[in-house]
Specification:
Strands 1, 2, 3, 4, 5, 6 and 7 form a seven-stranded antiparallel sheet that branches. Helix 10 crosses helix 15 and helix 15 packs antiparallel against helix 16. This protein is an alpha+beta fold. It has three domains: 108 residues; 125 residues, Beta-Lactamase; 170 residues, Orthogonal Bundle (Hypothetical protein af1432), CATH 1.10.3210.10. It is built from 18 helices and seven strands.
Length: 462
């Protein structure tokens, strides 16, 4: 029996077959897992970069005047004040988001050529033909015809590898008159992915020639960091820009983690920069520098005492900053009218929460503000607008901001009335508790010392 077993060829021995089978499965598992993780990570990178560019393009397009852009294109000159104003806006968008490539606008698309209009860098003539890579033509055509933002796949030309985001620039009639173009180099990310592919291949070849235990350990070494990065990318895609992963690998995977963390950090800075740009633009239009940040600080002071989550606090802050963004669609004559409003004028005013919702819901970065934008004029007894929502049906942060906004409005002068004293304003809150305002929020607000309210609202106590 012993002699017979020893006489078996090596390839027929059970131990050998088990060893070879397990080793083959191990190395195959390494290859398959690495391939799937690599493919998923590449897709996640493209979604993250695409979302980053779309946020910039959408927010930037809101800051560009479509009618002014039409006038620039009609004149066909780059030495006019209107051209200079649009160019300055593009430069602010580029600087605020730390973009290395110029930001520019396109006005038309025929065949394979687009027409350049305004650029943040250089002195290109208005109407200059611009040869478009085939990969971006469908996205650009869709933006011009449908008026919806779009992102291109990763593509290459003689200058490198890119991803481009487009957003429509509309005039006051809502017609798309041009497209804002935001480019981003993808070379660094593709190089990192190529390094990852090479690393996975080496790991596979090593795993095929080592012992079974070595193969298992190598599989964990290769796939665990990639899985961590993939999970991290998923959290970032879902909007968690504070997500981090501790990856101690000193290989290309570690380099890829460093590049990814840097990208997320820049994305977070860019998002905050976009918020700041829109905030300053709204304050400049209203002629009240610092008023929105004052409201955000006061709202957060109440929110802190109601144990809001971090995401609710951020939503409350964004809501305070953009609560009246819908007023950009309201005529200036109505907004600043000194006398009483007519019923028609009041109806126009009362449409601004819905207008604000329509503006912000197209910008994922700013959608947390919607609960405040839509609900800050709703009242606890259902007497508010635009929907007449009442009680607990009104989002909590909307109820909080309604109280703070009322205090701020009463303690600051308006074209149609003088400012009230802080004590009078707090008394109005007290009387409106349970009817106009959430009583729990009013109790919290009244529990804040008057000195603190005077500091937050930047008003006199008396």
């Amino acid at each position: 029996m012993v002699v017979a077993r020893e006489g078996l060829p090596l390839w027929r021995r059970l131990a050998s077959r088990l060893a070879v089978t397990f080793l083959a499965l191990t190395t195959l598992g390494i290859l398959l897992t690495g391939y799937l993780e690599h493919r998923e990570l590449k897709q996640d990178f493209q979604r993250v970069i695409g979302g980053f560019l779309l946020n910039i393009a959408r927010a930037g397009a809101l800051l560009l005047d479509g009618d002014q852009h039409q006038a620039v294109v009609t004149k066909g000159r780059n030495d006019t004040p209107a051209y200079g104003a649009l160019r300055a806006q593009l430069q602010r968008i580029q600087q605020a988001n730390q973009l290395e490539e110029p930001v520019y606008t396109l006005t038309s698309f025929t065949g394979e050529d687009g027409r350049l209009a305004v650029t943040s860098r250089g002195q290109e003539p208005v109407g200059k033909e611009y040869r478009l890579p085939p990969e971006i033509q469908p996205s650009l055509r869709r933006v011009l015809t449908e008026g919806k933002p779009a992102i291109t796949p990763i593509y290459s030309n003689e200058r490198g590898t890119w991803v481009t985001g487009f957003a429509p620039i509309v005039n006051r009639k809502g017609k798309t008159v041009a497209v804002l173009n935001v480019d981003h180099r993808a070379d660094a990310y593709l190089i990192a992915l190529a390094n990852l592919r090479r690393s996975l291949l080496v790991a596979f070849l090593i795993g095929a020639g080592v012992a079974l235990i070595g193969g298992v350990l190598l599989a964990q070494l290769v796939t665990r960091p990639v899985a961590q990065l993939s999970a991290l990318a998923g959290r970032v895609v879902e909007g968690d820009l504070t997500a981090r992963a501790r990856i101690a690998a000193r290989t290309e995977i570690g380099m890829l983690a460093d590049v990814f963390h840097l990208m997320v950090q820049r994305l977070h800075v860019s998002n905050r920069s976009i918020v700041g740009v829109v905030e300053r633009a709204l304050e400049a239009r209203a002629g009240e520098p610092g008023s929105l940040r004052r409201l955000a600080a006061a709202a957060n002071a109440v929110g802190e005492r109601l144990d809001l989550t971090t995401s609710q606090q951020e939503a409350l802050e964004f809501g305070a900053l953009f609560h009246d963004i819908g007023e950009i669609r309201t005529p200036e004559a109505i907004l600043h009218k000194a006398g009483p409003l007519t019923s028609e004028e009041r109806a126009v005013i009362e449409r601004h929460p819905v207008a604000g919702m329509e503006i912000l819901e197209t910008v994922p970065l700013l959608t947390p503000a919607l609960d405040v934008v839509v609900a800050h004029h709703e009242r606890y007894d259902g007497s508010g607008y635009p929907h007449g929502t009442k009680g607990e049906e009104i989002p909590l942060i909307g109820r909080i901001f309604a109280v703070v906004d009322t205090l701020d409005a009463m303690t600051h002068a308006r074209p149609y009335r003088p400012a009230r004293s802080l004590s009078e304003a707090l008394d109005v809150l007290r009387k409106g508790s349970g009817t106009l305002f959430d009583p729990r929020v009013v109790d919290v607000a009244l529990g804040i010392p008057a000195e603190r309210w005077a500091e937050l609202l930047q008003c006199a106590r008396a």
